[in-house]
Amino acid sequence: ATLSIPNIARLTGAQLTTSTTNPDQLVDSFDANQFKSAKYLVQIESGLDTHVSELLVSNNGLDPPPFTQYANIKSGGELASLRFELNGSNIRLLASPTNAITKIKVFRTTMEA
After folding, report:
1. pLDDT tens digits for 22-47?
2. Which residues on adjacent β-strands are paired with residue 38?
3. What are phi and psi of 92, to 5 degrees?
4. What is the number of other CB atoms lying within 10 angstroms of the CB of residue 27?
């Protein structure tokens, strides 16, 4: 689902349930030509463990885009490593899960360029 605030920002949600520990699984992406920055609220679940975090990413044309991950709350160990890449005209959020069955939910706020 998407909620738009005209000329300011867009709120979007996405979900991925993994079945392998393959690296760099696509969780979400946004148009780098349309948006200058994004903030993510990420919830990762595997078994009884949960990891919640926030991420900020800046679109300055670099690959990988600069980002920071903060406000980490973990009920177990590291459930996935997260990174961003610039792929064509899209900035993509990628996850490398520790466990095969992992559910990743994100809530993204993007700011227009």
Report:
1. 999 999 999 999 999 999 999 999 99
2. 57, 110
3. -115, 135
4. 22
